[in-house]
Design brief:
By secondary structure, the protein is of the alpha+beta class. Helices cover about 30% and strands about 20% of the residues. The chain contains 21 helices and 31 strands. A 9-stranded antiparallel sheet has the order 6-7-8-9-18-13-12-11-16. α9 packs across α10, α11 packs antiparallel against α14 and α14 runs antiparallel to α15. The longest helix has 21 residues. About 55% of the residues are buried. One of its GO terms (molecular function) is hydrolase activity. It holds the Pfam family Glyco_hydro_92N. This is GH92 family glycosyl hydrolase.
């Protein structure tokens, strides 16, 4: 799901990068050492390799968030004082910081922050307006890691440090010796909403920020708030509230009716220069925010909170061990793994309390030892992020799936793209089934399987009543899909945020039907399985046999004209027909035959790259480079994957080729850099690419290790000469998830393209 995108990748562009690299190395000007892959030192601490700056410039939409993996609330410097759609809290190129936010931003997305709160320390006259209170800062003063952030605010000559837990945060502020010391608190509520209260005797400020829906049901209440409890060690010399730009001393409450509202406290003159602030958050109540804070930060020990978060991240990031590569590649890799470990987020409290889905109006409790998750960017993350979790964190992935099942049970229908605990009908497809069955097929069972299937089946066969459908429940345009075997152009799909896109919907529903068919078959529902499998061939109904591209089609069977597969069209999603022609992951062999056989298929793939139509910055392209493997041209998979890794990603703030989309872009990098990718989630197969590193070890939660050894890997040796699985010659260009689970060793002999193994069979 995209807001803006980097220019699509092309072979011409990659050659230009290589030419520039040659010129730079020739004249002896370079930004880092050219370390051979195999000779590079093995990183001793993956945590130290993470650089949260990556993706914070241009279109990446990431942010330097501090906390723990998949935490409820992340703590970040704020350079944009808004919860507006598609605006991240922090942009690297902004010159001023307006505060420090307890954020629920869906990292790398074009959605909204929600239920957040901002704290801003200042010195001198009281200024509450974000533009007026903002301070200049220098990037040189910033210290960033997944567990800690620090910066010097130049305009106030003070230093701010952040650390956090799953549901709470802690700030350490070092003020200058002189001047009035203020702390400004703002619930980032929409105009006319929100609440804040100062409690001087308790040295605390509490409040909430109501959550509002966007997409389907835009403007309506999401049925819950972002609650916060802020505690200070020191007593207040003065405290009050503010409404708009007007501050009022000694008032304790400020509620609805303000364009912006908040509270402020001024510390006593004899207060220490360095103070601590603890913040608890919850989506259910102020009492739960207090309990979350007490449970996760019972004391005033900043370094202990930071240390525990660092230990948590080290343990998580160390589940993948890499050797080789350049320092920049290792930084890019572990930062990608960090970005792929932020969402979906935990939204239940420490005692398991969470709000019922879709404004249900009830409070529920997650099972003991489990958490309830939200913010599923499923059109993006079914492709790589959730498959990555099935490898690295299967127990957590199962909890996420149980959360989806709970949403379906509480809301009535399985959600398509659930965020801010609401139906949205954002994006297309029905890919919850892909996430559910991909986990089931890989042996993950810590969710209610019968209820999951009931909900999957319901989505596949039943359209909700009209009043529920317009709220975002059910597949969009399912009636047309069932009637015609495709969605005709006459159906403009009005009750969706993305209207039309009929061809893309048809293709993605056909894939979803395939996965649902497998789920049905696994559970013994043979009639459902047969019908859904038949429907999974509906992709053929939008593949024009004359042009051999997918193409818009009317209800009478005629094709839209004029037609240019290289141009964007309203009947495809964020892409063009050339790109979407390749979205038949469930039947690549059938697609190869339908377009004229292997040579024609390879030619069509070549044309996509040669015409600069491949777009790594958006999800419809993500599996395309791996499709050469299916047509007997694995060298081209290895060529393009390695070039994409090298040219589309980097270790700077602009190091992402598009929105990170809740970690999907980063998950693509993590998997591809290790040398494989799941072309069809819902099956056990991974397609082999070209790993960046000489050795990769995945430490599995079952105690075993899956190892990939890429012998003689280097910038010049990017092609696979031979494959061995556990020492035995291996002829396939894919391997199974079962190989990972049993702790196999995949050995790839790397070299140049001159190899009989690279010839088409």
């Amino acid at each position: 799901m995209k807001q803006i995108k980097r220019a699509p990748y092309s072979i011409v562009a990659s050659k230009a990068v290589l030419l520039f690299a040659f010129i730079v190395s020739t004249v002896g000007i370079f930004v880092g050492p050219a370390i051979p892959y195999a000779a590079a030192e093995r990183p001793s601490d993956p945590f130290s390799m993470v650089d949260p700056r990556i993706g914070t410039a241009h279109e990446g939409q990431t942010y330097p968030v501090v906390g723990v993996p998949f935490g409820m609330t992340g703590w970040t410097p704020e350079t944009r004082s808004t919860e507006a759609k598609c605006i991240a809290p922090y942009y690297y190129n902004d010159a001023k910081i307006t505060g420090f936010r307890g954020s629920h931003w869906l990292s790398g997305s074009c959605t909204q922050d929600y239920g957040s709160v901002t704290l801003m320390p200042t010195v001198g006259d009281l200024k509450v307006n974000p533009e007026q209170r903002a301070s200049h800062y220098q990037h040189a003063s910033e210290v960033m890691s997944p567990a800690y952030y620090s910066v010097h605010l130049d305009d106030y000559n003070l230093n701010v440090e952040l650390a956090g837990t799953t549901r709470a945060g802690i700030m350490r502020i070092t003020f200058p010796r002189e001047g009035r010391r203020n702390l400004i608190i703002e619930p980032n509520a929409r105009a006319g909403q929100g609440f804040v209260e100062v409690r001087p005797e308790a040295r605390e400020i509490v409040g909430y920020n109501p959550v509002v829906r966007i997409y389907q049901g835009a403007g309506q209440s999401a049925g819950f708030n972002g609650y916060f409890v802020i505690k200070l060690q020191q007593a207040f010399q003065e405290a009050g509230t503010w409404c708009g730009d007007q501050t009022t001393k000694h008032t304790q409450q400020q509620g609805a009716g303000c364009d912006r509202l908040g509270a402020y406290v001024t510390l006593a003159d004899n207060a220490p220069q360095r103070i601590l602030v603890r913040i608890g958050t919850s989506f259910t109540s102020l009492a739960e925010a207090e309990r979350n804070l007490s449970a996760e930060e019972p004391g005033w020990n900043f370094d202990a909170v930071r240390g525990r978060a660092e230990a948590t991240w080290r343990q998580y990031l160390s589940r993948i061990e890499i050797e080789g590569g350049t320092p920049a590649q290792r930084t890019t890799f572990y930062t990608a793994l960090f970005h792929a470990s932020l969402a979906p987020r935990i939204v239940s409290d420490t005692d398991g309390t969470y709000n019922g889905f879709a404004n249900e109006g009830r409070v529920h409790h997650a099972a003991s030892g489990s958490d309830y998750y939200d913010d599923f960017s499923l059109w993006d993350t079914f492709r790589a992020l959730h498959p990555l979790l099935t490898i690295l964190d299967p127990q957590r992935d199962g909890q996420m799936i149980q959360s989806l099942v709970d949403k379906g049970r509480q809301g009535g229908f399985l959600p398509i793209f659930p965020t801010w605990n609401s139906y949205t009908s954002e994006m297309i497809g029905d890919h919850t089934v892909a996430v559910i069955y991909d986990a089931y097929a890989k042996g993950i069972r810590n969710f209610d399987v019968p209820e999951a299937y009931r909900l999957v089946r319901q989505n596949a066969f039943i359209t909700p009543p009209r009043d529920q459908y317009v709220e975002g429940k059910g597949r969009r345009a399912l009636a047309s899909y069932l009637q015609y075997g495709y969605i005709p152009l006459e159906d403009e799909v009005p009750d969706a945020f993305h209207r039309r896109e009929q061809v893309s919907r048809t293709l993605e529903y056909a894939y979803d039907d395939f996965v649902a068919s497998r789920f049905a078959s696994a559970l013994g529902h043979t009639d459902d399985a047969a019908l859904l499998l038949k429907r999974s061939a509906n992709w053929r109904n939008v593949l024009d046999p004359e042009t051999r591209f997918v193409r818009g089609r009317y209800a009478n069977g005629s094709w839209i004209s004029p037609f240019d597969p290289a141009k964007p069209a309203t009947y495809v999603t964020e892409a063009n027909p050339w790109q979407y022609t390749f979205f038949v992951p469930q039947d690549v062999d059938g697609l190869i035959d339908a377009v004229g056989g292997r040579e024609a298929f390879i030619s069509k793939l070549d044309g996509l790259f040669a015409n600069n139509l491949y777009d790594q910055g958006n999800e419809p392209s993500h599996a395309i480079a791996y499709l050469y493997n299916f047509a007997g041209a694995p060298a081209k998979t290895q060529q393009h994957v390695r070039e994409l890794l090298n040219t589309q990603f980097g270790s700077g703030p602009d190091g992402l080729p598009g929105n990170d989309d809740a970690g999907q872009m980063s998950a693509w990098y993590v998997l591809s850099a290790m040398g494989f990718y799941p072309v069809c989630p819902g099956t056990l197969d991974y397609s082999i690419g070209s790993p960046l590193f000489s050795r990769i070890v995945i430490h599995l939660t079952n105690g075993k290790r899956f190892t990939i050894s890429a012998l003689d890997n280097s910038a010049d040796h990017t092609y696979i000469q031979s494959i061995r699985m556990d020492g035995h010659l291996y002829k396939s260009w894919s391997f199974s998830h079962l190989d990972i689970l049993r702790g196999a060793t995949l050995t790839l002999q790397m070299g140049t393209i001159n190899s009989s193994m690279q010839k088409k069979e």
